[in-house]
């Protein structure tokens, strides 16, 4: 089993920045990639960003590319999401996810990000 704990959410004005962190514990030796999804009120969960655990491959949703940066600290089993130039439409609960090499998926409980206009 893998446990994921997010931190760093909060309230920020439009144009501001926040950084989310996700710490993984448990059976993390077979991590394939980690990333972030978000779910806004009344909407479906959507992909935000992903980083591979081997190599430096990253991918982003078009709506956040150029504003958000995902990074990892492999030694600490941590992934971070630096969010700059935030917009009100970025308001959502942000979920950390981890997929392992056996295609098992794990989710954190989420961190609320609120961007005021």
Notes on the structure:
- The structure is a single chain.
- Strands 2, 4, 5, 6, 9, 10 and 11 form a seven-stranded mixed sheet that branches.
- A hairpin with a 6-residue loop joins strand 4 and strand 5.
- With 117 residues, this protein is mainly beta.
- It is globular and about 40 Å long.
Which helices and strands occur, and which strands form pairs?
Layout: E1 2-7, E2 10-13, E3 18-26, E4 31-39, E5 46-52, E6 58-60, E7 68-73, E8 78-83, E9 92-100, E10 105-107, E11 111-116
Parallel strand pairs: 2-11
Antiparallel strand pairs: 1-3, 3-8, 4-5, 4-9, 5-6, 7-8, 9-10, 9-11
Which terms summarize this structure?
117 residues; mainly beta; seven-stranded mixed sheet; four-stranded antiparallel sheet
What overall form do the CA principal axes indicate? Answer: globular
Distance between the termini: 40 Å
Number of strands: 11
Structural class: mainly beta
Average pLDDT works out at 95
Give a short account of the largest sheet.
7 strands, mixed
Produce a short descriptive summary:
The chain is mainly β.
